[in-house]
Design goal:
By secondary structure, this protein is α/β, with parallel strands linked by helices. The protein has helices at about 10-15, 15-30, 35-50, 60-70, 90-95, 115-125, 155-165, 220-230, 255-265, 265-285, 310-320, 350-360, 370-380; strands at about 55, 75-80, 100, 125, 130-135, 140-145, 170-175, 180-185, 185-190, 195-200, 215-220, 295-300, 305, 360. Helices cover about 40% and strands about 15% of the residues. The relative contact order is 0.17.
Amino acid sequence: MKIPLLNLVRHHEAIKLQLLEAVGEVIDSGRFILGPRVQELERLMAESLGIPFAVGCASGTDALHLALRALAVGPGDAVATTPYSFFASSETISLTGARPLFVDIEADTFNLGPAALRRFCEKECSWNGAELVHKPTKTRVKAVMPVHLFGQCADMRAVLEMAGRYRLAVVEDAAQSLGAEQNLNGEWKKAGAIGTIGCFSFFPSKNLSALGDGGMVITADAQLAERLKMLRGHGAKPKYYHHVIGLNSRLDELQAALLLVKLNQLAEFNHRRVENFKYYDQHLPAAVKVPVVREYNRSVFNQYVIRHPRRDALQNYLKAEGVGTEIYYPLPLHLQECYQDLGYKTGDFPVAEQASRETLALPIDPLLTETERRFVVECVRGFQ
């Protein structure tokens, strides 16, 4: 049996005619840039997330970049974030000219560690009454970027506490967590709609996936929303009148049309991912550390990431058996070659570094069959 980590061909079989019809409607309309389908997707996203403004853009990476630019993050500034994430989380900070400052993660959720964030703010930084200054680098810490990794929200209570105390903007990297929720003071809040700005990706592996790239930025701040719209279109408002240097980062009308079709599946597919999690949680052997979901979170399981001390051997064994897996992520961000000039070294963030040695994603495709799930479990159990 061959079980890929994600089977997109299977995803599109049932809705192929709808997708083709949607493409045909866009072609017939002659509207290809920021047309009615982009506007409709923005409206539906904002409505579903309980937030007034949503701005479509070209990718999840651009969503983060636009968010930071809208907050005027730039040279001399810094943004605190996790070292255990996809590269775009720190890359977009660097692209603004600011400095990524890393904070270690929790061992069981893989998300930004609340205690580590508090130590960072209180020990590594100083508060002068107007701004938080990172003492070793003399940079102004203007924002914190929690990443809601693998479908589960970071502890936003701790993030909001530190952000409120030190006047930090909060940029939620919710690329993997559309539909996830967190209970804050008795109210369930959607991932991305908790901080200052939330960022989403529609990359093909995401829960709501385009047939290519796409992204979305959301905010409750009307001024930020207008600035985001201006920045995604070369910094112009109106056309040909450029107030700032922006980007060419517009969500494609064709991708918006396809996403509108697939949006109808999102709630059901997220539910199926949760069911797959429950099955694995009940049947995987004790030698495997299964994902932990905090009691105040509802995860949408973009990935199902286990831990095993012999991760590489397990991956090779599963590959030989026909089970697709992926390592998220084999090298923490602070140890990447391009960040050597930041001065970090092995041992600086031990929890993230250990996670990079032990984590492995198993198939949690919402269209996994009962037989396929059972086969994955049997293969993991068969590993010696």
